[in-house]
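Hey team,

Filing this mostly as a record. A colleague (T.K.) asked me to run one chain through the structure pipeline before their review meeting, and I want the input and output archived in the tracker in case anyone asks later how it was produced. No errors, nothing strange. Just documentation.

Input sequence:
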Amino acid sequence: MNKTHTASVKELPDSRVEITGTVQWDTVATYEKKAFEHMAGHLNIDGFRKGKIPEAVAKSHIPEELLLNNMAEKALQDLYPEIIKETGVDIIGRPELAITALTRGTDITFTITATILPKIDLPDYKKIAKEIEAVSAEAVTEADIDKVVEELRQLRAYGHVHGPDQTHDHKEELPEVNDEFAKSFGEFEDVAQMREKIKENVVREKEQDAKDKRRIAIMEAIVAKTDFVIPAIVLQSEQEKMLAQVEADITRAGFTLDDYLKQSNLTKEGIMNDFKPEAEKRARVQLVLNAISRKEDIVPADEEVQVETERLMAMYPGADQVRTAAYVDMMLTNEKTLSMLEGK
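Output structure:
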């Protein structure tokens, strides 16, 4: 089988690479019909219906340079996954692609500039994890249960729960905690059964909190012994995620981000800058987790990703399926990696 292309990698500063290569003309030429039909379908010529322009007329209105460029772009789009696989680079973010030489009948040349995952020299992460002691879950008290019951009373009376520092002027009286109240929240026979279920849920929450505390301690200890430079694109992505969360919280409260910025005398750039220390911390943890999962060859099963993606898509019908699947893949990989570090 003839080689359709060549590619070589040059490392650049700041976790970036430059991939240069060629694509054989014979390969590019196979995209001429597809490129021409695409461009002809978007032409607007007086006297002809869009998409129904005769081939000869369309050819006279499509410059050769634009046609060749469209052919080359389509060829590179299809070859891109193979080129990246062959070069062995782990690209993150959107690459910059440039066609540097393009002449009919001649192999084209191209350049791809992209950010890659940084090289991370991992410490003995398993040994470090073992040295982090388990955290005991806090005991559940009657006060913990009472707090949940109080929140349920507010939810039933007001439709929402007030935080400890929030004031309100609701006139509705809180409902009495009796068996009828308990039955309104589920298949409970009485208040005692409801309180028992609440206790079970609080126990699980406190156990999860204890588990999360140990996981955080493990990752902080590993990251502390891992030195690398975070790519700018990764840091910016984390800052944008944090801003998106703030915007979602503000929207739920009935405001817009612009309203919030004006009332608080803040700017989006200022908030993003304030997020930087926490964003750096999150990015560093995620990049180390990525490096460990790759070294341990930890990959979630396709079936797991599919099931969880479908569950989230059902909850959020407007979500982008590709991004949702990528998010699920990352979260499942993180979970499996952290479980491995816990020794489970």
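Quick notes for T.K.: Residues 234 and 283 are 7 Å apart (CA to CA). The beta strands are 5-12, 16-23, 91-101, 108-116.
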